[in-house]
Amino acid sequence: QVQLVESGGGLVQAGGSLRLSCAVSGSIFRVIAMGWYRQAPGKQRELVAAVASGGSTNYANSVKGRFTISRDNAKNTVYLQMNSLQSEDTAVYYCNVRRAGDLVGASVHDYWGQGTQVTVSS
Fold first, then answer.
1. What is residue 66's predicted lDDT score, i.e. its pLDDT?
2. Is residue 14 predicted with pLDDT exceeding 80?
3. Helix (H) or strand (E) holding 105
4. Alpha carbon of 75 to those of 14, 24, 51: distances in Å?
5. What span, in angstroms and rounded, lies between the C-alpha atoms of 99 and 53?
6. Beta strand spans in 73-114 (E)
7. Which of 81, 113, 72 is nearest to 94 (CA)?
8. Residues 6+ apart with CB under 8 A from 96
9. Cβ atoms within 10 A of the Cβ of 67, count?
10. Per-residue pLDDT band at 67 (split at 50, 70, 90)
11. Which of 3, 9, 18, 39 has a 20 to 30 A CA-CA distance from 89?
């Protein structure tokens, strides 16, 4: 069985920093990308940052220059370094692993963590 466990969330002052970690247990084959999503109350879940299997990264415009996604393949861990945090960053942050579907022509399959709360006070 596969489990994704996020950690590192908490309450920080505006302008502060936080580092999220996502530990992946179990084996996931045919990984396409790993990333972080967030969801604020009343809003849709949105992509924050992702790193593809080849190493390329993608960031939401709102976090470019402030957030950095990285991975440690040996530790099966994905990180999200968040700097210059703003109140708008307050949300539950979810770790995501996307892999190819099991069947030819099938859609991708997503694994999700339970989420970690990030609250930025002004």
1. 98
2. yes
3. none
4. 31, 8, 16
5. 10
6. 77-82, 91-99, 109-112
7. 113
8. 4, 34, 35, 36, 37, 50, 110, 111, 112, 113
9. 21
10. very high
11. 3
Share of the chain above pLDDT 70, in %: 100
The alpha carbon of 65 is separated from its chain's Cα centroid by a whole number of angstroms, namely 16
Place of tokens 């530990």: 23
Q: Number of C-alpha atoms within 13 angstroms, CB side, residue 32?
A: 11
Q: Say if residue 24's pLDDT is above 90.
A: yes
What average pLDDT is seen over the chain? Answer: 95
Q: How far apart are CA 30 and CA 52, in angstroms?
A: 11
At residue 116, φ and ψ (nearest 5 deg) are -135, 135
Residues composing the chain:
122
Task: Provide the 10 A C-beta neighbour count for residue 77.
Answer: 17
| pLDDT tens digits for range 73-100 | 889 999 999 999 999 999 999 999 999 9
